[in-house]
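Protocol step 4 of 6: structure prediction from sequence.
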Amino acid sequence: MKFSIQFNTPASYKERNTFIFLNQLHQFKNEINWNFQAYGKLWNYNLQYFNFLHQNDLTNIVKENLLCDIHKWLKKGQLKLEPYPVSLRIMNTIRYLSSSIEKNNNSIAEDTYAQLNYLYNHLEYHLSGNHLLENAFALLMGGAAFEEHKWIKKAKSVLYSELDEQILNDGGHFELSLMYHQVILFRVLELIDWYSQSKEPDLKFLDYVRVKAGVMLNLLKSASFKTGDIPHFNDSAPGIAFTSRELFAFAQKLSLTEPIIIPLKESGYRKFGNEIYECLLDVGSIAASYQPGHSHSDVFSFVLYKSTKPFIVDVGTSTYEIGQKRDYERSTSAHNTVVVQGQNQSEVWESFRVGRRASVKIINESGFHLEAKHNGYYPAFGIYHTRKFEFHKKAIEIEDDIGHINGKLLLHFHPDCELIESDENNLILIKERASVKFENTNQVYLKEYEFAEGFNQYRKAFKVEVDFKSKIKTTIKFL
């Protein structure tokens, strides 16, 4: 198989059985425990993905010894096969085998073929989402590599149905995480790369995938900041997916440069700005309705950059492990919106579960104005939360209305921001040459919080909590 898109992954295998994933380093003393769970399931999954096969600083002998070792564990039953890590390992292995001529290739190919047979019978239809897409991408690549037509047929059928289902009309991925959007977009670009160079490609299928890539690229361009950063709405963190800039460069190599211009809509993302600031909003409901595992309770949250610097940010995602940290990072209190009496807009629980859900209605959207409401607090309090955004050249005005009861407005500032409190109703940001003014407040608090720079990586920062009753107006001015 031929791959035009080449890359060198960050060094996750150090040496002497030492690995680093999710900013957590571990050295295995004697042999590698491929079922190591001390740092949680996601760390173990990363260990099984074998992304380190693309490290340029590792010899082929080291890479193949690692592959042979995990295959021994699988044959002995010491490690359970799971479709998701199997899918990623298959694709990494095939890419590796396509460029390697080491002596163990035949046995590695045989073991990879056996895992593809397992995958063929264990696609994750029950989970759907990015898992099922990764299964199909792996099965198609494996079918082409081993010339197994039943794998190809099944994979293409899944990709036709799931890309239609999961890629929204505006190009967004239906789990509404821009990180997973980047992950899936890479797979789409990778597919176009190798499939277009394969023997007798199905041109109808290839054209179909290229159209999907076009709308996904448009969404990513529309929802990224000028720096290439993405807002970390829902489950999203740096260092997991290829960056927007890397993906745009990959697309250019594949001659995917003709823009497919579709306004942001179904994804719930909206972007406003000029040369002074950029603001990305999340005005979407929890999605997908049957697979909301990566959703947060974050309706009407926003991320704001002043010029090219992050200013008001999401708290971020630092873990998928069940516990207080995970619960907090998914909660309404971890986002730049309004909390009513400590309640979440949507009921998020047990890491990837969602119960009762807020539904959003766009009331008015025109030019530099957006007004919407959600019903997340109606079951408990009988009220709707309405938020209005007005965007001006050097100012943003936000008005919140929660009816007759008390609420709390939250704004989380990036760790690089230097803040001082001027009086009860104003917050002046000296270094960043901006001011934030609140009208109709009961009390303004300046508190510390932990900003998630990535998985298991934090920096101290400041947030503002504003107690109010019924209505509040926030004005952000750039001086």
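Step 5 (inspection) to follow. The chain has two domains: 18-253, 270-478.
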